[in-house]
Amino acid sequence: TLLERSMRPSASLKRLVSFFGSDHFSCRTFEHLWRARNELGVSLHCVGPPAHLPRGNIEPVATPLEQLAQARELQYESVRASDLPSWKPPYERQVDDVLVTASYGGMIPRGLLDRYAEHHCLNVHPSLLPVWRGSAPIERAIATGKLDTGVTVQTLSPDAFDRGLILASEAHTLEDGAMYAVARDQLANIGGDLLVRVLQQLFAGKLTSREQDNHKATIARKLRHQDSRIDFASHSASQIMQHHRAFSHRHPIWTTYLDRNLVLLKLDVDANGHVGSPGSARWDDGRQSVRIETIQGDLLVSELQLTGGKPQGARSWWRGHAISRGHKSLIFGT
């Protein structure tokens, strides 16, 4: 009813921040907003995708943001991005209300954005826009070795992702060798602090903005399973390791062996490995690993998994697929 829709989380607070998100980046960003809620004078409301049913599960699993909202005893609205054009916010909007997205995963339609005042629809994006526009900016930065990155708070555009006005940004250099999850958390912490500062400026009437330089734009396209496939003939061991750190949280690094996909779960690099035949593998007893040659350096694999099988330690796997068949070496990726 209209009466129910007009009820806000806290009648004593003037502004409502509707936070759209889904994953761990969303959660860590939101935590900064949660801690600053009293200082900002806001109440909070979360929106995100509904629970999903992972393969092999009997019960649906809530998104990390929904779990966090439940822990904070906040209302969580389950809304698919495809349903947003017909979705109505549960509260009557007031002039200072704000909509924030952080890794929500969908376009906010113009009809919803138009309900808010200018500069009151914000996005926290983990790159220095216009560099790495798109859904996988952290992964692409790590995979390409471009560790000088950062976070941007921008306005939301109704026409395209990551084309808004820049309200604030902060540079950050990722640690060399950092896995995706570490980089994600570092950038989310920066993004959360940046978001709080932007809201302080917005509510004080001191917010400034600037256009993006579209000539400097690069695209961080969505991750695909094929991105994690290893080509030993065109990538060095160090480059493969970068891909492992960037992609393995979503799609573990893989190659092929005897027409089956072979996932490489635990990796290390010997940058001084001799250049021989890329894809050629042998047992390294000293490192207790399968040593695979690349165009530069060797990849050392200590845990593997063939499609349809279970993860195996390198020694057990090598015994079953090489020693038992009288082979001293194997070829991967053919």
From TrEMBL:
Organism: Mixia osmundae (strain CBS 9802 / IAM 14324 / JCM 22182 / KY 12970)
Protein name from the UniProt record: methionyl-tRNA formyltransferase
Record domain Formyl transferase N-terminal: where: 96-173
Family to which this protein belongs: Belongs to the Fmt family.
Residue ranges constituting the Formyl transferase C-terminal domain according to the UniProt record: 222-321
UniProt GO MF annotations: methionyl-tRNA formyltransferase activity
CDD domains the UniProt entry points to: FMT_core_Met-tRNA-FMT_N (cd08646), Met_tRNA_FMT_C (cd08704)
Superkingdom, taxonomy of origin: Eukaryota
GO CC annotations, alphabetized: mitochondrion
Top-level enzyme category: transferase
